[in-house]
Amino acid sequence: MKALITGAGGFLGRHVVTALLDRGAEVRAMVRPAAPVESLGWPKSVEVYRADLRSSRDLERAFDGVDVLVHLAAAVSGGEDAQFAATVVGTERLLEAMAGTSCRRVVLASSFSVYDWSAIDGTLDEDSPLEPIPDLYARDGYSVAKSWQERVTRKACAAHGWDLTVLRPGFIWGRDHAYLAALGIQVAALHLVIGPLTHVPMTHVENCAHLFALAAVDPRARGQTLNVVDGEGERIWSFLGDYLRGTGQRGLRIPVPYRLAHRVVQLAFGTVFRRNLKLPQILIPVRFESRLKPLRFTNRRAREVLGWTPPLDFQTCLQRTFQPLGPERTAA
Amino acid sequence: MRAALIGAGQIARQHLTCLEGIPGVELAAICDLAPSVAECAAERHRISRWYTDHRAMLAEVRPAVVHVTTPPSSHLRLAMDALEAGAHVVVEKPVTSTLAELEQLVRRAEQTGRTLIEDYNYLFNRAPREILRRIETGELGNVVHVEVSICLDILGPGGFADPNVRHPALALRGGAIADFLPHLASLAHLFVGRHRSVRTLWLKRSSSVLPSDEFRAVVEAERGTATLSFSSSSQPDSFWLRVHGTRMQASANLFETRVTFDGLRPGPKPLRPFVNGLVEGKDVARAAVGTLLRKFTGGPGSYEGLFELLARVYRALQNGTELPVTLEQVLEVNRLVEALKPAGEEPATQPLRLAGGREGGRP
What we know:
The complex is a heterodimer. Helices cover 36% and strands 17% of the residues of chain A. Chain A is of the alpha/beta class. Chain A starts with a strand and ends with a helix. Chain B has two domains: 2-118, Rossmann fold, CATH 3.40.50.720; 122-302 and 326-340, Dihydrodipicolinate Reductase, domain 2 (2-Layer Sandwich).
C-alpha cells in the first residue's frame, strides 16, 4: 500500500511517516519547497515530493500509484486569511488534483476545534454538535479554517464516492510542543490556571500518529469520524506542573475557578469590550470555552471501531517529551 | 446601490466590513477564484450570491460599484471588465502594475462615464485630516516639507518573503516595497502636490527572496519637498507622517492614533521647548490611551481611513457630488509612483507558480 502524506515535515507529519513505515506502507512525503528534510532522518525509501498546496501546479502527479491520501497539511499560525488560504484553498486544490487519479481513499486530520464547545455539556464525543454558521465566524482563524477544511473534504469525497476517515485530535503534544493553550494564561513566571481540575483533551504525537497510520491501512476505518485523545486527559494543574518540571522552568501556579473567569470574560465582552472580535483569544467567550471548558473526553469510538489503544502510556510520553536527547539523536 | 467585490482575501474583508456600515449599500455578490473563499466570505457577510467567474457575476448581478481587491497584476483586466459592465470601480492599491496600464484604464473610465478610484485610505485617517485642517486654517503656515516613512517587517515567514510561494507583489517592479509606494506617494502628493523631480535609493540589507528591502527617495514637488522611505529592518513597525510648516510641525504615526503638533507659541522663547514638550507629552499620553482603547473596543484600527474614504465615495455617488479621489489625482500619484520605481524591466506579470516535483525515493 502506498500513502501520500501532506504536511509530512510538520510536527505530526514526521511521526505519521514513521508510523506508516512501521506498518510496511510505502510513503510519499509531501513537504513545502523550502522545507529542510535532512534533519528528519527519514530512510531512503521515503519519497520526498516538494510542493506547496497553495500554488504548485501538477499536484496530480503526487498521486501516481497512491492508494491513500493522509492529509495533514494545515496552517497553525498566521493571519486568519493566510490560514484559510493554506488550509482550505490548499485542500480544495489537492482534492481537485486527486479527482483525476485512481486514488479513492482519504484520511483527514481535522480537529477538536470544529465542535460547538458552548453547546456541549458533559462528554464531548463524535456525536457532539459542530459549530454552526454563523457562530463559527466568531471563532479564531484556526477553527474557521479546520471547519471549512472538513467541509470541503466531505463535499469532495461525497461527490466522487471516495472513502473518507476523519480523525479529530485534541491538543497534540510532544517534544518542543508541550505548552498547550489549555494551560491558561502565562504572564512572565506567573501562570493563571483557569479551572485547575479540568481535564485536557490531549494526545501525544506518537500515539496520535499511531492512530493515523492504523486508520490509513485498516478498512474498518472507512466512513468513520474518530476523536483522537489518549484517554480522559491529565488535569491542567498537574500537567502544568509536569511541564514546569520537565522544562526546568520556575513558575508560580495560581488557581482560578473556571465559572468565575468565564463570567468575568462574558461580562467584559458584552460591556466594555463591545463584542470586539479582535481581542486576545482568551477574552472572547466562545474562544475561551473552546480552550478551557471543563468537559469529559473519550477515545471510546476509536477503541471500538479499530481496537486502538495508545501504544505509549503517559509516563513514557512525559519521558519522550522532556528527557534530554541522547548524543546520537542530537547529532541526527 | 448594489456593490460587488472581486477578490475575497484579507483586504476584501476590510472593504466588506466598511460596506456593511454604509447606508443605502447592498452587498450583492462576491467573486473569488477559490470557491471556498468566495462562499465563506458570502456566508460570513450574509451576501446572497457568490461566484468564481467575475464576468458571470457582472452580467447577472449588474452591480453599480465593483471593488477590485485581487493581486495587482489582475487589476487592469478586472477593472476594465467592470467598467465595460457599466460599474464604478474602486481598486485596491496599486491600481495597476504600470502607469501605461493605468492610462488605459483611465481612458476607458472617461469613455464609459464611470469613475475609477484607487484606495488611498491613509489620506482619510484622522491624523492627516487634522493636519490638513490646520493647514486650511493657517495654523500650520505654508507646507515646506513632508516626510513619510514606513517601517514594517515584511521579511517574516508566510508573507512577502515566503520562500515557498511567490507573493503576487513580487510581480511589481520594485517588488514588495512597490506595493507600499501608493501610500507614500499619495501622502506626499496630498501635502506638496505634483512632483517635478525624484531621486531614489533601493537597497537590500537582508537575505530573502525580495529584490529590495530598503527604499529612500527625495522628491521636489510644486509646493515643497518630500522624503519618502520604507524600511524592512527598522523596528518597531510604524508609519510616520511629518509635515513641516512655516509656523508648526506635525507628526503622526498612522498605525496608531498618535498625532502631535510642535508650534511657535506665545511667551518667552527660552521656555518654548519646555512648553512644547509638555503639550507634546500630553498628546502622546492621550494617543497611547486612545490606541489601547481602540484595540480593546474594536473598530477599524489603522483601516479607519478606508471606512471614511468608502463612506465618502458612496455618498458622492448617491448624491452626484464631487468624489474624494479624482481621476487626475490618481494619475498624478501614479506618475510619482512610476518615478519612484527602480529602473529596469517589469518582472513577470503573472506570479510564478512552483511546480511540484519529486526527489529521492525509489527510482
